[in-house]
Amino acid sequence: MSFNRKKKKENNGGYPPFLNMWKFGNLEIEGKVVLGPMAGFTSMGYRKFYKKFGVDLSYSEMVSDMGLIYQNQETLSYLNTSKDEGPVGIQLFGSEPDNIKKAAEIVAKTCSFFDFFDINAGCPVPKVTKSGAGSSLLKEPKKLADMVRAIKSVSDKPVSVKIRLGWDNSSINFKEVIKELEEAGVDMIAIHARTKKELYLGKPHFDLLKDLKKEMKVPLVVSGNIYTLDDAIEALDITGADAVMVARGGIGNPWLIKQLSHYFKTGERLPDASLEDQKKYCLELAQSMIEEKGEITAMRIYRSIAPKFFFGFPNSKEVRSRLAQSINTFEDLKTIVESI
Predict the structure, then answer these.
(1) Which of 59, 104, 116, 260 has its CA 20 to 30 A from that of 81?
(2) Nearest partner of 160 among 103, 218, 87, judged by Cα
(3) Cβ distance 32 to 222 under 8 Å?
């Protein structure tokens, strides 16, 4: 039984492989697949595991500038990185240029290995936007540009920004934001093709980003509902972007990264992962996260990850329920997975 989260769309006439190399500041990126930052998911153990499938660029979880300034231990743990996962960026969120500047200086002194900074101007969660961070910054393009300048004043690392189309349908201003960011010297921009108000609901509006890359001076990465190879092909075909970002669509489906990476380098489509493949990947990712976080913490987090490996398979509802509720140790996980 093959693994398939969504019915594939027909790709009329096929799509030729892309020229894969693109430059981001002083970094040469050798492929088209970016692992998107996700709070609670993309820690070092997660990123290292996904790197093996063909990730070309990845980000840390969101890191609070004030958390770094106040030396919060949990916030500092988000700076854990390793050379074998690079290129990797540290994604900062905050609302004031002075604070983001101080946070960047702390990262430079604390983080053992990283390749670039990213500013989160796309998170739509109220807890973040109420503080003036995340998507709230789309209302203040000049301040967001000043935040880019602030980081660049203390670091020679490339700086990227992740944004959305705008705050809501009546204030779609991504082109204005892009202009301000480019004038500030940003090195790359990633765009989630929804507004803040849409959160993660409905279909992303890649049509609004049609041929956007032609209008830009810096590399463009696009994201939103990338669950299949055809989703990625469509997003890149419409926008002309340099790369596509996989986030929620890759949770429990690391093979999607491999399918994208392989296709963009060879033009060949790989089949979906089998059930046996998924069982193996589920256990391997768990081990990677245990290595990083310890068994108790990793397995608590894994209750929201493990069930996603088995979406799309017949009669998997009971198994997914057990995985979400009954795993406290790696042995618990292994027993359930091996019973499938």
Answers:
(1) 260
(2) 218
(3) no
Q: Alpha carbon 234 to chain centroid distance?
A: 18
Residue that is last in its domain, among 266, 296, 313: 266
**Are 45 and 186 in a shared domain?**
yes
What is d(CA 200, CA 248) in angstroms, rounded to the nearest whole number?
Answer: 10
Written as six digits, the tokens of 269 are 């489509």
β-strands 116-120, 243-246 pairing: unpaired
The answer to whether 123 is a known catalytic residue is: yes
- Could you tell me if residue 1 is inside a domain? no
3-state helix, strand, coil in the chain (%, to 5): 45, 15, 40
Total tally of structural domains belonging to the chain: 2
pLDDT value, residue 2: 36
Number of residues that make up the chain: 340
CA-CA distances (angstroms) from residue 113 to 23, 40, 71, 88?
A: 20, 21, 19, 8
Domain that holds residue 288: 275-339
d(CA 43, CA 305): 13
Model confidence over 231-287: pLDDT tens digits? 999 999 999 999 999 999 999 999 999 999 999 999 999 999 999 999 999 999 999
**Which of the following is catalytic: 68, 119, 123, 186?**
123
Q: Looking at the predicted structure, is the pLDDT value of residue 5 above 60?
A: no
The verdict on 87 and 216 lying in the same domain is yes
Q: Which two tokens stand for residue 13?
A: 């006439």
Residue range 216-226: mean pLDDT, rounded: 97
> Residue 20: which pLDDT band, with cuts at 50, 70 and 90?
confident
Where residue 194 sits, what CATH number does that domain have?
A: 3.20.20.70
Question: Do the beta carbons of residue 117 and residue 155 sit within 8 Å?
Answer: yes
